[in-house]
Amino acid sequence: MFKYLKKHWSCILYGVALFGFTCYLLMDTFLISQVYRVAEKTEGQNIAGEDKQEETMAEASETSYEDGKISITLNEYREEDTTIYVADIVLSSPEYLKTAFAQNSYGKNVTEKTSEIAEEVNAILAINGDYYGAQKKGYVLRDGTLYRSEAEKDQEDLVIYEDGNFEIITEEEITAEELLEQGAKEILSFGPALIENGTISVTEKDEVGKAMASNPRTAIGIIDNLHYVFVVSDGRTEESEGLSLLELAEFMYSIGVETAYNLDGGGSSTMYFNGEVVNNPTTSGRSVKERSVSDIVCIGY
After folding, report:
1. Per residue in 177-216, pLDDT tens?
2. Tell me: the pLDDT tens digits for 153-170?
3. Cα(300)–Cα(95) distance, rounded to whole angstroms?
4. How far apart are CA 128 and CA 289, in angstroms?
5. CA angle at residue 183 from 249 to 200, to 5 degrees?
6. Facing residues of 72 across strands?
7. Phi, psi for 200 (deg, rounded to 5)
8. Is the peptide bond before 216 cis (omega within 30 degrees of 0)?
């Protein structure tokens, strides 16, 4: 009898321990924040992370911003039963195209809403980035600082150089260190590339993971030197179906984009402009609310 009880309790304790370990692994993967490195502040930032903007005579409205150095026009389109928001951006210098981490920190499960990150860095315009924190591999280069250099198989990245130009690369074909030496300032690692050198580079068969064909989407593109677009589409609702990757690429091609790159989409897709979220972010379609993300791409000082 004693041996039976001992064996019985041993099994219970083992089960409890196994359950606890499994819960810890799940929490460590998805919930527990781990800051690996505080982002290096760029010239002109104060300790609080707020930019010391030069005084400019800015003219701003719900659909535009102009101050002589940064010009942004927000347009709304309706394609494929989907609402698409396009921020047309013209800059006087590439320094105003930026990225930012949630909580100003590189790490695991370190997240904030797109609007929160944007407000912390005084961004005029922002979209969600590549959600690097959901991946264990893939290059992470931000503002000239290399945070992760382990290549992911078959991974297409967008490289933004110091002069503001875009290039699509495959991680297995060139190292992050080599790109940094060549003048890379930012590397976004999500994808795929939508348009490369004026040619659509996705097909009807292309999709991100196991996602449905039509989804909320976020993308960035370049039309000409220092002329960019941020694109966000709503989706998963009765009012807005969402876009496939090919539909997104075709739309961006139609507005003159030469190189376009797909960023994290679905519930992450968010556009922030002049202090407001302008689209309708949703994960399930049942409620409109922002998802917390690892990082943003933004325009500001």
Report:
1. 999 999 999 999 999 999 999 999 999 888 876 566 899 9
2. 999 999 999 999 999 999
3. 9
4. 14
5. 15
6. 65, 89
7. -65, 130
8. no
Residue with tokens 């407001």: 276
Percentage of residues in the chain having pLDDT higher than 70? 81
Length of the chain: 301
CB atoms within 10 A of CB 156: 18
pLDDT in tens, 105-118: 999 999 999 999 99
Tell me, what DSSP letter sits at residue 96?
Answer: G
**Rounded distance, CA 261 to CA 156, Å?**
9
Would you give the DSSP letter of residue 249? H
Phi, psi of 4 (to 5 degrees): -65, -45
pLDDT at position 46 over 50: no
Rounded Cα distance between 100 and 93, Å, is: 18
Question: What are 198's two structure tokens?
Answer: 């004026």
Position 71: which residue type?
Answer: S
